[in-house]
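Q: Fold this one first, please.
A: Sequence and structure below.
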Amino acid sequence: MIKEHDRIVLTSDLPKEGLKAGDVGTVVHIHKRGEAFEVEFMTLEGDTVAVATVLSSQVRPVSDRDITHARPMEMSV
């Protein structure tokens, strides 16, 4: 069960927000008993990149077998 302040992993791309499957975010709000989540995504320096509402089918909890991977954000012009 995903709770507020848990880290999650995107399982699908969110092109509008510039986010990709595998990106890690932090749950800041839970909608309708876990049907959807408000998730904040940040750079490794701590700057917020996006706050997105995602369905439970678009995320999974972080596991003890996950590793961090860095990628540069594509900047929109």
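Q: Good. Now the second chain.
A: Here it is, same layout.
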Amino acid sequence: MATKQSSAEKRHRQSEERRIRNKSAKSAIKTSVKKFTTSIQDKDAGAAETNLRETIKKLDTAAGKGIFHKNTVARKKSRMQKLFNTLKTAQ
């Protein structure tokens, strides 16, 4: 016969799974942003554009899943786009 579990135990288990999933997504985004920043510092517009698109896609996905607030994502995207535009105008 199965033992009855409390809702608190289930909630704890669910939150732990979400925490691990969110941590993985945030780490991937940080890595992507770092690649973008490095390509900006190297003044490589082609790589910067590729990395920008990849990062924006990951950020939008994270916002859709509720990992980041939509305004946080909008702010990050805006700042990265601004950096990319300054690089393009400098060339």
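Q: Anything worth noting on the second one?
A: The chain has three helices and no strands.
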